[in-house]
């Protein structure tokens, strides 16, 4: 059974819907490197090669003259960081809104005449707490493989990447671009309350 079948729905939603992933690689000399990448999630049943259909993959494109590519060639074990940036952004905006409360509003609360504002403030703080409960990060560990350039499989995944990330077409269609598929092997999820779950 694929470890992805054990993933909770909120983790699958995060992996399926995030636009970017941080890809961590390491050289044989133990020098780490991290890159922010466009990607697609490919469930096993939608994999190009029949032999891949018992696993799930993260697929992305990279240039063949990058440190990341050289690291993958020499050390295919990678880590992928997914983060709930939408919740984090909303949380930041709400906190910023709270910090920008007008001086007159603050004076109303201090004088005891700002019941309405006080109620809004309480509701906002409660909403912030709820947002924090759902904020999470997930680190997926996997085994990366380079797909042969100019192969049907490479063309297949390039088309999927372009469909999902049309704004990255210059990069994806570059002559030096190669497609990397990462077989998902395990995941560690941490939420804003420092609760950690591991799936293997």
From TrEMBL:
Gene3D superfamilies from the entry?
Answer: Electron Transport, Fmn-binding Protein, Chain A
Residues passing through the membrane, by range: none
List, alphabetically, the SUPFAM superfamilies matched.
Answer: FMN-binding split barrel
Q: Name one Pfam family in it.
A: PNPOx_N
Which residue numbers delimit the Pyridoxamine 5'-phosphate oxidase N-terminal domain? Answer: 8-97
The signal peptide, as residue positions, is none
* Cellular component GO terms, alphabetical: cytoplasm; nucleus
Q: What is this protein called?
A: Pyridoxamine 5'-phosphate oxidase N-terminal domain-containing protein
């Amino acid at each position: 059974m694929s470890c992805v079948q054990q993933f909770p729905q909120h983790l699958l939603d995060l992996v399926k819907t995030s636009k970017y992933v941080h890809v961590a690689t390491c050289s044989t000399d133990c020098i780490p490197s991290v890159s922010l990448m466009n990607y697609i999630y490919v469930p096993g049943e939608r994999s190009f090669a029949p032999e891949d259909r018992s696993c799930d993959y993260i697929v992305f494109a990279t240039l063949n003259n990058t440190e990341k590519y050289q690291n993958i060639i020499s050390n295919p074990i990678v880590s992928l960081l997914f983060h709930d940036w939408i919740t984090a952004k909303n949380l930041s905006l709400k906190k910023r809104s709270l910090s920008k409360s007008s001086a007159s509003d603050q004076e109303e609360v201090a004088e005891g005449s700002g019941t309405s504002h006080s109620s809004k403030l309480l509701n906002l703080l409660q909403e912030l707490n709820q947002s924090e409960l759902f904020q999470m990060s997930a680190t997926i560990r996997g085994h990366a493989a380079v797909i042969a350039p100019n192969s049907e499989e490479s063309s297949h995944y390039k088309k999927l990447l372009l469909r999902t990330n049309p704004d990255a077409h210059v990069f994806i269609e570059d002559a030096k671009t190669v497609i990397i598929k990462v077989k998902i092997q395990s995941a560690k999820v941490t939420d804003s309350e420092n609760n950690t779950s591991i799936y293997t």
